[in-house]
Fold this sequence. Notes:
The protein has 147 residues and is α+β, with helices and mostly antiparallel strands. It has four helices and five strands. Helix content is 31%, strand content 25%. Strand 4, helix 3 and strand 5 form a beta-alpha-beta unit. The longest helix is centred in the C-terminal third of the chain and has 15 residues. The protein is globular and about 40 Å long. This is GNAT superfamily N-acetyltransferase. Keywords: Acyltransferase, Coiled coil, Transferase. It comes from Dyadobacter arcticus.
Amino acid sequence: MTISTRQGTIEDIPAIFELVKELAVYERALNQVTNNVEKMTRDYNEKLYNFFVAESDSKIIGLSLYYFRYSTWRGKRLYMEDIIVTEAMRGNGIGKILFDATVAAAKTTGCTGMLWQVLDWNTSAVGFYRKYGTNFDNEWINCSLDF
């Protein structure tokens, strides 16, 4: 099996949205997905996010979606919104390939670091991130407003 990664394109959005829905099913939250291909296309055109895809046999099997944010203390930071590997392909090192590509993008674009979230019950993901020397924050509380 040959796996390749590349920067995503607008033509990939329908396929990556299928991965987004698959992740939502995995996280038991499909009913919370209000995004769609049209919104993702519009937002991509407005340069609100970027992404890498992993492919095998010309089929998208993984995704790392990210955007830039700014810290008043640290400057430019890359925020990885999601890293998704289709269930059938998990355990083949695809997540590592996507994560490494995202880390490289943060470094080559002058970021001072990278941030993301992981669900506390997702022990395989927590273990994966520990291998990188990730700092897990127990002090900050996630907050959000939905409109």
